[in-house]
Specification:
886 residues, alpha/beta, 4-stranded antiparallel β-sheet, 16% strand, RNA-binding
Length: 886
RNA sequence: GGGCGUAUAGCUCAGUUGGCUAGAGCACUUCCUUGACAUGGAAGGGGUCACAGGUUCAAGUCCUGUUACGCCCA
């Protein structure tokens, strides 16, 4: 046992223990170590990422789980890694070279990729190092990157397998195009945001019918240049006569037909819809049904192309404005209305996404989804909280094909090769230099790269080097808990489930814990642009990593969003300080024969009620903590330990112990200190997953661990001694009542404004012989806690004069005071008597009700009867006390 | 437009399969620097459980509807 300094130095202990854990390889496990596996794979943060509160919450939860399972004796591995984040990372590096006046095209693919790799080497581990500050006990020997060699092999293998199976195809469809990033996006990567837009009503002249027009409504007037029809609903009487007629597209003077199609909603706008097959998914479908031409009017970077006639070269929104002006000038603009609607935005750069016809690679998802749907329906994979099951199933059952090609350079290049000689196209694991069909050397690889999520969906097995079959893969897969946020259920969770079944033939994980979003005090998402983010590293600096973790998890009700502000982290800091100080208190008390804290022997036959009580309560805490963790109830878990350590242990047990510890009965001192160490040791272990640094420091500081040991592998306390717990129960009940009675006595003092320094005499009239025996044994300690001059326990006490008093099931307490405000005392007692009478009345009514006696559970009826008897007793006593006032 | 979530103390939230007097932390009021801790201790005030119906012996909890806010999908 080493002397603890007066104040904690969180920075010092965080650095010391993290380095120690690394040095002693505490986070690493291997299949060869045997035992029961418990695996978590980290949601790989982007290499461009810096730690924010969302990461802090996500990783605190994972670390809590993995540390707990490790203590339970599992072969527990938490596999870390980072994601190459194709578009995001490319954007970062493009911005960087822009400062040198360069575009990626100026460097060329190869040179540009060198720059990205260099950037990754320099900055890519930032977030990994930040995770270490949090205390994350990842198995760093297993650190992976989605573009390292092994994972790239997995990606290639998967692509080729799906391609050969016919599940990957190339096709020209409407996709989400980001004109800023100049790449296709998947449906999930286009974020819908509500925007205040306009609905433009424009007129198209009817051919050969001067003065006759058709009015269409659109939110994107610039796409009219690509219109190849106008559609109405076939049942719409208003327009039936127009179907089959020809319209003249303004400006371009192109002739387009009026068609009838069920898809058109009669109520929307004018009921006439312009049809632009190359720029809208619904129009595209309509175009197919009616064999309409598809005219793309835009370039990759969001400007109008040669099909836009006089508008060619204009930026799309500038073009919109000009077209509106021109149509207005030509008398073809009927009106412009305000219109709220959802518009897709690029999830990486927030540019407005342009739906657009484009040749891309897709994965056919329906067949992959089937096993994933069954797995959740049959409960093999469970979401926590379970409401996410439904969200997941909804999406999976309506799944659409996945656009996986991206027109960027940073990522896994698509392993498809083309022969320019004979036109052969094939998938290849290597880098072929000649065409396998005609032998020509005019071979080139597809330019596109794969969606970033095409590598992360393999994460649970690619981190173990799949497709290589090895012991780790066999041992650690399937993994156990997946901890993530709801935002990526579709992006990632659902796809991992599909990949797991498709390539491993088994589920990737058993439980998916979905935690909430971290928000600021006003409920807004934390973001850089709002300037409302709280940097977890600032919190670690100011409070401590333990405080950050504890506070975050204490605030995390299952799956609910977490609202944080700086002050909220004080809970964790204060709790840490409290624990530190009680540890110092224990150290303060030396014994003649020093205590061997590693080999505590307890003597229950000589225990007081308080001893039984605290030992029972730590047992209960162990049980509760374990249950909370099993059910992902992190706030309850934090609360259990807070309540136990602060209130049960510090507020009561330590206070009861003081007279003994400052006294001279060496045997009692020894027993009390032994119990304290026994209890505190267990509490530290229960708290370790949540506050790893502080608990490790104290575990050593108190001498519970040898120099080469760590609390990380100390056994997780179990509540298994039922016999002892059963024996403790009567003491637990007594002590809980004693706490209450002490509170009531203190209340008497406060009511009569007795200065805290003054001693007053008290009498307790016990409710029965058992209570009397207990109270007599505890009289000295109670006297101290209520600052009594003299305290007598007198079963026959009858107040000789008016005395302030209070009552509970254990007995009545009387305070001896010179001047008593008899009237105030009468009012107080009368108030209590009224409350008792009222409750009794309600209870009697309930017990008189036949239906209640018959239908309610036996326990509930018995409880009601017991309560009634208790209240009757209480009523009598209160009446007597009232009479005693004279 | 469809789906989901939330509504409990001034604030942030717990409250499990319906069942004792609805809890915690923060904030607030009063008092206390006695020997672990003022990042502390003691005591206290504060709630028609959003609203309206219903089911039940019994509803904060279950059902229906209304309102408000938030999220996801289209």
């Amino acid at each position: 046992m080493s002397e603890l300094p007066k104040h904690i130095d969180p920075k010092a202990i965080e650095e010391k223990w993290y380095a120690w854990w690394l040095q002693h390889n505490c986070f690493h496990r291997e299949a060869a170590d045997g035992g029961e596996p418990y695996t978590i794979v980290i949601p790989p943060p982007n290499v461009t990422g810096i730690l924010h509160m969302g990461h802090a919450l996500n990783n605190s939860i994972q670390d809590t789980l993995i540390r707990w399972r490790r203590m339970q004796g599992y072969n527990a591995v938490w596999v870390p890694g980072t994601d190459h984040a194709g578009i995001a990372t490319q954007n970062v590096v493009e911005r960087e070279i822009k400062k040198e006046g360069l575009r990626r095209q100026d460097l060329g693919r190869e040179k540009f990729l060198e720059r990205v790799w260099a950037w990754k080497e320099q900055y890519g581990n930032t977030i990994v190092n930040q995770l270490k500050k949090l205390g994350a006990s990842c198995d760093w020997d297993r650190l992976r990157f989605t573009m390292d060699e092994g994972l790239s092999n997995a990606v290639k293998e998967v692509f080729i397998r799906l391609y050969d199976k016919g599940l990957i195809y190339r096709g020209t469809y409407i996709i989400n195009w980001c004109p800023r990033c100049q790449t296709a996006l998947s449906d999930e990567e286009s974020e819908h945001r509500d925007v205040k837009g306009k609905l433009y009503h424009m007129r198209y002249p009817v051919k050969d019918a001067p003065g006759e027009f058709v009015t269409v409504a659109t939110t994107r007037p610039e796409t009219f240049l690509g219109d190849t029809a106008v559609a109405v609903n076939p049942t719409d009487e208003r327009y039936r006569h127009l179907v089959g007629k020809t319209l003249i597209l303004p400006v371009l003077h192109r002739e387009i037909p009026v068609i009838a199609d069920d898809f058109v909603a009669k109520e929307f706008g004018t009921g006439c819809v312009k049809v632009t097959p190359a720029h809208d998914p619904n129009d595209y479908q309509m175009g197919l049904r009616h064999s309409l031409p598809q005219i793309n009017v835009m370039t990759d970077d969001g400007h109008m192309n040669e099909n836009a006639g006089p508008y060619a070269g204009l930026e799309r929104f500038a073009c919109r404005k000009k077209i509106v002006d021109d149509l207005e000038a030509a008398g073809l603009l009927v009106k412009v209305e305000d219109h709220h609607h959802a518009v897709g935005h690029c999830y990486r750069c927030s540019a407005v996404v342009e739906p657009r016809l484009s040749p891309q690679w897709f994965v056919k998802m329906k067949p992959l989804a089937e096993p994933g749907i069954r797995a959740v329906k049959e409960g093999r994979i469970a979401f926590v909280p379970e409401r996410w099951n439904k969200v997941y199933l909804e999406w999976m059952e309506n799944i659409r094909d996945w656009c996986i090609s991206r027109q960027i350079w940073w990522g896994h290049q698509i392993p498809i090769f083309y022969c320019d000689e004979c036109g052969h196209q094939w998938a290849d694991r290597g880098k072929p230099s000649v065409c396998p069909k005609c032998g020509s050397a005019r071979v080139r690889q597809d330019e596109d790269v794969l969606d970033t999520w095409f590598s992360s969906w393999l994460w649970p097995f690619s981190v173990f080097n799949w497709p290589e079959q090895n012991e780790d893969l066999k041992f650690y897969y399937p993994t156990h808990a997946l901890v993530t946020a709801s935002e990526i259920i579709f992006f990632w969770v659902a796809r991992m489930i599909m990949a797991g079944y498709e390539f491993m033939g088994d589920l990737p994980f058993r439980e998916v814990y979905i935690h909430g979003t971290v928000r600021d005090n006003q409920g807004r998402k934390m973001s850089k642009s709002l300037g409302n983010s709280i940097d977890p590293l600032d919190i670690i600096n100011e409070f401590s990593a333990d405080a950050l973790r504890f506070s975050l998890l204490m605030l995390t009700a299952t799956g609910q969003d977490v609202y944080v502000s700086k002050e909220k982290f004080e809970v964790g800091r204060n709790f840490g300080t409290k624990i530190w100080n009680v540890a110092r208190f224990m150290q303060l008390h030396k014994l003649e024969q020093p205590l061997e804290v590693r080999a505590i022997s307890l003597n229950p036959d000589r225990w007081t009620a308080d001893d039984w009580h605290i030992v029972a309560k730590i047992d209960d805490a162990a049980k509760a903590a374990t249950e909370c963790l099993e059910r992902y109830r992190f706030n309850d878990y934090a609360h259990v330990l807070y309540e136990f350590l602060w209130h049960e242990f510090c507020d009561w047990y330590v206070e009861y112990a003081k007279p003994t510890l400052y006294g001279t009965d060496e045997a009692r001192r020894r027993e009390v200190l032994s119990i304290m160490h026994y209890v505190f040791n267990r509490a530290l272990r229960l708290l370790h997953p949540l506050m790893p640094f502080l608990t490790e420091e104290l575990w050593h500081g108190m001498g519970y661990g040898l120099e080469d040991e760590t609390i990380m592998t100390a056994p997780w306390p179990k509540a298994d001694n039922l016999t002892l717990r059963g024996m403790a129960q009567p003491y637990v009940e007594y002590v809980d009542l004693k706490h209450d009675l002490i509170r009531r006595a203190r209340q008497l003092r406060a009511d009569y404004e007795v200065p805290p320094g003054d001693k007053v005499d008290f009498v307790i009239k016990p409710a029965g012989p058992d209570a009397a025996a207990h109270l007599r044994a505890d009289a000295d300690a109670i006297a101290l806690l209520i600052k009594a001059g003299a305290l007598s326990i007198d079963p026959d006490f009858a107040p000789p004069r008016a005395m302030p008093s209070a009552l509970n099931a254990l007995g009545a307490v009387y305070m001896s005071l010179g001047g008593v405000d008899v009237e105030a005392e009468r009012i107080k007692l009368q108030g209590q008597l009224d409350a008792v009478a009222q409750e009794l009345e309600r209870l009697e009514a309930r017990l008189a009700n036949e239906a209640f006696i018959q239908k309610a559970k036996v326990d509930v009826v018995n409880q009601a009867r017991a309560r009634r008897d208790e209240l009757i007793g209480k009523r009598e006593k209160l009446a007597a006390m009232l009479a005693g006032l004279g």
